[in-house]
Amino acid sequence: MSGTDSPAARLQALFEGHRLTPTQRRIAHCMVRRAADVPFLSSVELAELAGVSQPSVTRFAVALGFDGYPALRRHLREVTPAEPVDRPATRNEYQQAVEEEIENLRHLAQALADPGPVRQAARILAGSRPLPVLGLRAAAAQAYGFAYFAAKVHPDVRLLDEGGTMLQDRIDTAVRAGATALLCFALPRHPREVVDTLAHAKDVGLTVVTVADSAFAPVAKHSDVLLPAAVGTGLSFDTACAPMLLGRVLLEAMCDDLPDAQARLEEFDATAAARGLFVE
Q: Would strands 225-228 and 157-160 be described as parallel, antiparallel, or unpaired?
């Protein structure tokens, strides 16, 4: 989703084609988010940022084909000649968490310089009748929010925000009703049930579009189109401003492929006014 000349895009290209462990995916995700700073970080500093051990960073560099982390850092300095970003040193932990989310949104804005993947995903989803929207545990709120607004412009949105033995049954029902695609919101920690459900969705012929925290998320291998948006990790519980915003951007793009979207919105507004649903 990013321009090919950006530091983050060059890092993504470096990681592609490598089979990474969950710990290594965490390091890769951290490096992409801090692409401008990474060439100037020590292995200890990178390990601290990623929340892993220093030996894990060394093993990660070797997995990418380098002799060690110093060789990886030299390579990054050659291909990413950028100065590290200065950040205020007096921020408290709450301010730091907000700053991290602002950085995630900046990265998302840069990625959207190429709107092609979002528009491709929007066309796929707009054409599915019905449209199942999946999100479990931490991602349930994202799925609910998207489905709530999507139902205003799409004729048949089916929210799948509860796991259990009937989840795959509900996907089968959607397929029998004509569904051709599924939208998934996937956030850490990634439930095994989501990975299994996406595998089933692929088996029954659905095209899977996923909004995930990273291009290296476990759901990537079961996604036809993956749209990454980082989560904030500065607090005890992750924050997901960027995935939420990306979901709204995706919905906006879908409206362009739903010819009666504006008419549906106007109809809803008229009905809401007649029923007195909202106060001014």
A: unpaired
Copy the structure tokens of residue 280: 């001014």
CA 120-9-73 angle, to 5 degrees, is 160
Right CATH for 7-84 from 3.30.420.340, 1.10.10.10, 2.60.40.1180, 3.20.20.70: 1.10.10.10
Q: From 51, 63, 60, select the one nearest 24 (Cα to Cα).
A: 60
The Cα–Cα gap between 35 and 39 comes to 8
Write out the two tokens for 52: 């892993």
CA nearest to 12, candidates 124, 111, 86, 98:
111
**C-alpha–C-alpha distance, residues 271 and 183, integer Å:** 28
* Local mean pLDDT, 10-residue blocks, the chain (280 residues): 63 82 86 85 87 90 91 85 52 84 92 96 97 97 97 96 95 98 95 97 98 92 96 87 97 94 91 90
- Cis before 123 (ω within 30): no
> Strand, helix or coil at 239?
strand
Buried b / exposed e across 20-59, counting CB within 10 Å, b at 16+?
A: beebbbbbbbbbbbbbbbbbbbebeebbebbebeeebbbb
Dist. CA 132–CA 125, nearest whole Å = 9
The DSSP string of 257-270 is T-TTHHHHHHHHHH
| CATH superfamily of this structure's domain 110-272 | Glucose-6-phosphate isomerase like protein; domain 1 (3.40.50.10490)
